[in-house]
Amino acid sequence: MEMVYSTMLLLMQLMSGGNGPESDASHQMMASYVNAAAGKPVIAMPAKEVQAPDAGGEFVKKDPQPDAPEVKGIYATAHSAGGARLEKLLSLLNRTELNSMVVDIKDDYGYITYPTDNPELLKMGTAKKYIKDLPALMKTLEQNKVYPIARIVVFKDTVLAAKNPELSFVRADGSVWKNGKGDSFVNPYAKEVWDYNIAVAKEAVKFGFKEIQFDYVRFPEGFEKKADSLKYEKTDISRVDAVAGFVKYAREQMADLGVRVSVDIFGYAASVPAAEGIGQDFVKISKYVDVISPMVYPSHYSTGWYGADAPDTKPYDVIKGSMVDTHKKLDPIGSFKPVIRPWIQDFTASWLGKGNYIQYGKAEVEAQIRALRDTGVKEYLLWNAGNNYTEADYK
Description:
Blueprint: H1 7-15, E1 28-34, E2 43-48, E3 72-76, H2 78-81, H3 85-95, E4 100-106, H4 119-124, H5 134-143, E5 147-153, H6 158-163, H7 191-207, E6 211-215, H8 223-226, H9 239-253, E7 260-266, H10 282-287, E8 291-295, H11 315-330, E9 339-340, E10 343-345, H12 362-374, E11 380-383
């Protein structure tokens, strides 16, 4: 999940413009593609949407896993899942209502986190041995009745950008663009990038994952301010349509595999117009996934949100407000509405400074869960970057 981002920067991005909820007449499928000039990436192009109707003539999104449990999960890095910490995490799940684990399969740097001999993956990516024996891990999760979700970081991919600069964003001097933390992104317009990440997802399914969770499904923060100074392949479709096109395409490519497709998205996205700069539209993305996971950490909201001077100190109010906004955003799309499964906060945001944060523990985690329950949301995921989770009532 996207763990840390600038609250004020993100707010400016989201408020910088964009359209409201997509109308029925504007639904489009990104399903046809054209080759760019010789030696250049393949670029996605839009095509007219064709949906399979139900008996009443209207499209109905069908859950590929109707018998899946109500997911209450935790995040596990590849190091945790493949190391000694796994036993501690399983112990927590076995003695609580928690029943799922989101495991890094392609991480925030772009590394494939387990050894693979798949030439399709190795052509584009680099494999590590953080999870030395993935089949053994999957067997262990199954034995402990853990619902396994594979997290795949998509367009934030420093490894692929360095290996294939033509699939990234290049400065005038020929260097690959990096953000302030030294991370690079790859181009959401490039179909090669789409197909590579979907190939990773398909291999994860072969290992037994029940759901594929795509993260960083967007352009870099503030991209609209730097786009004109960077070289990259694109078409005349919007960044929003390029990103939504990937999500739609990914779900179609995995339609026959019996797995859910989910996407992580900024929590603010449910409360403001589309984020044209980074290419995220809450409604468009939600239409094409089985599960949507807004990141609604109270620490990531700025002063004044949901009536709170210091939102981090009001976990119940912030989560409740964000879910009310989420329902308002998604209710109009009817049968396209996915399962709402937010990421909630199980960490202390001390970087916010005195008076702006509180220590998060049992009471704060339970307050967030209560707010979800009070707004009709039954599923959630706990985020803690170090995978140190609170002992709490997770019902």
